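Hi R.,

Here are the chain sequences for the assembly we discussed:
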Amino acid sequence: MKITGKENKQWSRLGSRATYGQAILMLAEKLENLMVLSADLGNSSGLDRFKALYPDKFLNIGIAEQNMIGVAAGLAKEGSIVFASSFAPFITMRAAEQVRMNMGYMDLNIKTVAIGSGVSMSFLGNSHFGLEDAAIMRSIPNMTVVSPADCAEIVKTVFAAAEYPHPMYIRLTGAVGFPVVYEDDYDFQIGKAVEIRSGTDVSIVATGSMVYQSLEAAKILQEEGISVSVLNMHTIKPIDTKALNLLISKGKTIFTIEEHSITGGLGSAVAEHISSIPNSPTLYRIGLPDEFVITAEYHYILEKYGLLGAQIAISIKEKLNLK
Amino acid sequence: MTNKEKYDQVFIDSFSVTADQLNEGLVYQSVQQWDSIGHMGMVAALEDAFDIMLETDDIIDFGSYLKGIDILAKYEVVV
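And here is the predicted structure of the full complex:
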């Protein structure tokens, strides 16, 4: 799936949820055995056009996420490639047992898509936030966890997921006006991180919406003479150990940045890997605190918890004792 | 290409309409393609065509082909 900057700008305007719906619409043109399920969030998932054009390929299961995973499992057993979407906590907590058994244990070809993960559901609050979802999902055997960096990467993830014959959790962060990271097409492979910016003084490993904010931080720090590399770790599990080993070999301080609790997400995955490597560099984890967070407008929440580019730059300088 | 031609082309490309549909009858949801998804695609296409960035309130107010001409005037784009 090739993308252009013009397309990505249009998808950025739509935001992550509607872009997922657009990606599914494009995928349906190429995939005969596609089935798309929703837990009463078809419109919120940008699936209006898909529903109208492919009514036989869409099932609204209702607000019954456990049942949605069960139905998805049955369809997958019969050979369908199934995408099932809902909000992050409803998939990862309400339906945790079904996800663990039907997706993990049975290793079925189901893709669950968490629309509005992180804090992007803003005024709907903690009941709808995905603060711990990556932690839960990456602890389930056979599960792959992907968090796209922008809308183009959402489209690429959906297309790659359709060809990936194992269960996957796709975690959509960002909101309407999801900033563009990729102006041009690039090579996207599940499990392979992408170095977006090279640097020699500090290494950032970021995922989801924090890739853009990390790039903003890197630009600010560059103006102050600090050279920062940014690695887009879109696949949180299996984590790209080869890319991490390369960073570790450089010996520079590593920062992980994520729109997720600092407990159990990307930062933890990176820590688990480097803890077994002698003399590895210091790792700092930046993310949402290990607490329930405020309910507010999306950008305000990011600012509150220091997750905007300028704030990340300050945090990095503080840790490096450069401020 | 004049601003009018560029403006019309965005509607033709975004909503699969013909030139004779570009009138007061072309309003939000009057054609199948002008739904919420199509609307944001049209906004992005206009921003590209005229090198502007529409405010959120203007995106919401942009409910018709004719209304859009008034809104673009705020951005010094005379159609």
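The mean pLDDT of chain A is 96. The radius of gyration of chain A is 19 Å.

Let me know if anything looks off.

Best,
T.
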